[in-house]
Amino acid sequence: MGSVVIPAPEFPTDLQLQEWIEEHYGFVPHPYWISHCRELYIEGTESSEESRRPWHECPPDKRSALKEAFLHFGMLEPRGMNLRSV
Q: Who's near 67: CB < 8 A, 6+ residues apart?
């Protein structure tokens, strides 16, 4: 018998996230902000502090828009089931 291959979930590109956030929140997040929020909210996407410069961090007032986009695209489970505390 052959092994069963389960396809990996298809997550949106940074461009898709940027377009959705611009449409719903009126700003375009920098790709560094998207990466930083992935580290904050999504399990298994951690990086070392040395690899991130201060200007790479998403401003606190923009993080809720990124989190909402992650929820919209299925990158996070609703109600904190997959959320890491920040």
A: 37, 41, 76
The secondary structure of 28-63 as a DSSP string is ---HHHHHHHHHHHBTT----GGG--GGGSPPGGGH
Count of all residues that appear for the chain in the document: 86
Taking each helix axis as running N to C, give the angle between helix 31-41 and helix 14-25, from 0 to 180 degrees, rounded to the nearest 10.
90
- Binned at pLDDT 50, 70 and 90, residue 16 comes out as very high
Using CA atoms, how far apart are residues 68 and 24, in angstroms rounded to an integer? Answer: 10
Task: Give CA 58 to chain center in angstroms.
Answer: 11
Mean pLDDT for the stretch of residues 21-41: 95
> Residue 43 and residue 84: Cα distance in Å, rounded?
7
Section 60-85 average pLDDT: 82
